[in-house]
């Protein structure tokens, strides 16, 4: 499969840019800047950048990083809607917090858009085999930044995990535990699947089945 000439996202990249320009100041006002450290928000920005530059590595890495997490988030959201805010795991409670306008909370529906857009982008540009490594390094940096820059807020579950709400030892141990779960239980299965089913981007910049 060959990548199509020109910019494959001529319209969508502008849609993504306009959305980011609207979304970023709203999030900064209602949630504060620390919320940008959430991996899901990082994924939104990098996916938009991937569309703008037609960058296979950015689109591939965010497909790897967002698919499972967004699915879990969606399950939590549906569970909360059915059971009046009670979710299967942590991470979506804020969607039922009436302190924030509904339209602001609705912006988090990006969780559904990011994996869909990134996977479609992978089909257009080809899957970059480096995506798993890239996303693993990115996650390590974001986890450390979340712990250092937003203490006490448990961003990305750097203080308590999302299922048992348990602290897995001292800070370095807990961070390593969360990172290991992300890299091998969340990212690797998606990476392995995409290697089998997606067109692969070659080192020459084309995609092959």
Mean pLDDT: 90
Shape: globular
Structure classification? mainly alpha
Q: Uncertain runs with pLDDT below 50, 5 residues or more?
A: 1-5, 205-209
In N-to-C order, the SSE pattern is: HHHHHHHEE
Record keyword descriptors for this entry.
single chain; 209 residues; mainly alpha; two-stranded antiparallel ribbon; 2 strands; globular; disordered N terminus
Your description of this structure?
A hairpin with a 5-residue loop joins strand 1 (200-201) and strand 2 (207-208). 61% of the residues lie in helices and 2% in strands. Helix 1 runs antiparallel to helix 2. It has seven helices and two strands.
Task: Tell me the layout of helices and strands.
Elements: H1 12-30, H2 39-53, H3 56-82, H4 102-106, H5 110-125, H6 131-149, H7 171-197, E1 200-201, E2 207-208
Antiparallel strand pairs: 1-2
Q: Summary?
A:
With 209 residues, the protein is mainly α. The chain has helices at 12-30, 39-53, 56-82, 102-106, 110-125, 131-149, 171-197; strands at 200-201, 207-208.
